Amino acid sequence: MKKVRIEDAAGLVLAHDLTKIIPGEFKGPAFKKGYVIKKEDVEILKDMGKYHIYVLELNKGDIHENEAAERIARAIAGDNIYFSGPSEGKIELKAKKRGIVKINVEGLNKINEIDDIVVATIHTNTLVGEGQNLAATRIIPLVIKDEKIKKVEELGREYYNNIITVKALKPLRIGVVVVGTEVYEGRIKDKFLPVMEEKIKRYGCSLIGTKYSPDDTKLIENKIKSLIEKGADIVLTCGGMSVDADDVTPQAIRNAADRVVSYGIPAIPGNMLMLAYRGKIAIFGIPGSAIYVKNTSLDLLLPRVLAGETLTRKDMISYGHGGLCPGCKVCVFPDCPFGK
């Protein structure tokens, strides 16, 4: 530390907290240790009776915490990310758009292995809103050696500056097929379509058509294909997904698709969900639980498809760890453990 006149302190780093006291109203740090003094602070400090202060002396190769945090943030941020701060040495990374946050966990761990570096994030594959906080970064001490920050920057380049990124949701066109002879014949009221309409609206998409089908494999297949021909980017096929003798939807999806990713997912509710593709068109088979539970396995997968991901069986298997919905009395999904 060294003592300097307050007039000479602009641009220097405060070595300790400076307390401000307003009798009966306030007592606390007006300027905190590590703060970089600005020209406009000089008169305020004089009003506090501070005409000399102690400042940190940075040695060659030392980086102040604010600069360090900024460089770390730039090294790890990918698409659709912006920064706020630094504030007390911390920078927050936020989402520019609504979408799915992707965290390269391997790269993140390598960065956090560097002494005195801290990068903390939310879970990968979380659906996030515009402006939502995704990560924060800082260093442990007030100053750090430049070589450590350069290691972070090297790792950032190694992972194409995509340690943290947001894949924006696309406003895709969705078609719905509601399956069930009892619904088709008008014996019971359809409960699927209102639920699907709400989801489609929630995710910023458009419903381009709805088809009703009895439990007939060929008819279901044809209705899926007709919606694709109409321009659907995704088809949600609702009902007929159990092992009952009358439930033939899985076979109809197999017939309509080029490839099946999986019939079944280790996530509850919605474990009997099916995902297949016809070309680039995703075809979902949605079990009845979606009628009664607001968020199911469909809400784990659909946003990722809307963000442009082509999902694999490995993606679906990965939901086994965290795939049990805790059934909270007040649902706060996606800000909860389900699917994390």
TrEMBL record:
EC numbers: 2.10.1.1
Ranges for domain MoaB/Mog: 175-307
Superkingdom to which the source organism belongs: Bacteria
Catalytic activity: adenylyl-molybdopterin + molybdate = Mo-molybdopterin + AMP + H(+)
InterPro entries cross-referenced by the UniProt entry: MoaB/Mog-like_dom_sf, MoaB/Mog_dom, MoeA-like
Cofactor(s) listed in the protein's UniProt record: Mg(2+)
GO MF annotations, alphabetized: metal ion binding; molybdopterin molybdotransferase activity
Gene3D superfamilies: MoaB/Mog-like domain
Pathway info: Cofactor biosynthesis; molybdopterin biosynthesis
A GO BP annotation: Mo-molybdopterin cofactor biosynthetic process
One GO CC term, this protein: cytosol
CDD domains: MoeA_like
Claim: DNA-binding is one of the keywords in the record: no
Keywords, comma-separated and alphabetical: Magnesium, Metal-binding, Molybdenum, Molybdenum cofactor biosynthesis, Transferase
Summary of the function given for this chain in its UniProt record: Catalyzes the insertion of molybdate into adenylated molybdopterin with the concomitant release of AMP.
Family: Belongs to the MoeA family.
Name of the molecule in the record: Molybdopterin molybdenumtransferase
